[in-house]
Design a protein that fits this description.
- The structure is a single chain.
- The chain is of the alpha/beta class.
- It has one domain: Rossmann fold (3-Layer(aba) Sandwich).
- It is about 30% helix and about 20% strand.
- It contains six helices and seven strands.
- It has a five-stranded parallel beta sheet, covered by helices on one side. A two-stranded antiparallel ribbon has the order 3-4.
- The longest helix is centred in the middle third of the chain and has 12 residues.
- The N and C termini lie far apart (about 45 Å).
Length: about 150
């Protein structure tokens, strides 16, 4: 049996909506073990974005973008949940997050904190407008990006 390109690679996914889930979908399709972390009671907003296109309580776009992934619900405002996330990150090869700059640092889950226990961790922060600069703290969504880039 042939081995998948990313078999044995573990990914911890703190993203939602489109850019991050799309990136981790590709990693999962290539054989990586992806663990998606969602907010309790809400989950990924794309679960219910298209109520006219749903199956089993989930929108089709959510099902497509999150195929081949495991899922876990953690309330990162609670210390116990943050500790669970830290333990998961310790055993992962890659972490993706889509929060505004500084959120993961304030939770104790930023790159500097996590690399102490996992120096080989690849940490990817997907933000609308980068980690610093005049728009860094603004929420970003795909329509904002294409408008800002002059594509619409």
């Amino acid at each position: 049996m042939s081995k998948s390109a990313l078999e044995g690679v573990k990914v911890l996914d703190f993203t939602r909506l489109l850019p991050g889930p799309y990136a981790t979908m590709i990693l999962a399709d290539l054989g990586a073990e992806v663990i998606k972390v969602e907010q309790p009671g809400i989950g990924d907003y794309s679960r219910t974005m298209r109520k006219d296109l749903m199956r089993g309580g989930n929108a089709y776009n959510f099902l497509i973008l999150n195929r081949n992934k495991k899922s876990l619900s953690l309330d990162l405002k609670k210390p116990g949940a943050v500790e669970v996330a830290r333990r998961l990150a310790k055993d992962c090869d890659v972490l993706l997050e889509g929060f505004r700059p500084g959120v993961m640092d304030r939770l104790g889950l930023g790159y500097e904190a996590l690399k102490k226990e996992n120096p080989g961790l690849i940490y990817c922060a997907i933000t609308g407008y980068g980690q610093d600069g005049p728009y860094a703290q603004k929420a970003g969504h795909d329509i904002n990006y294409v408008g800002y880039a002059g594509l619409v």
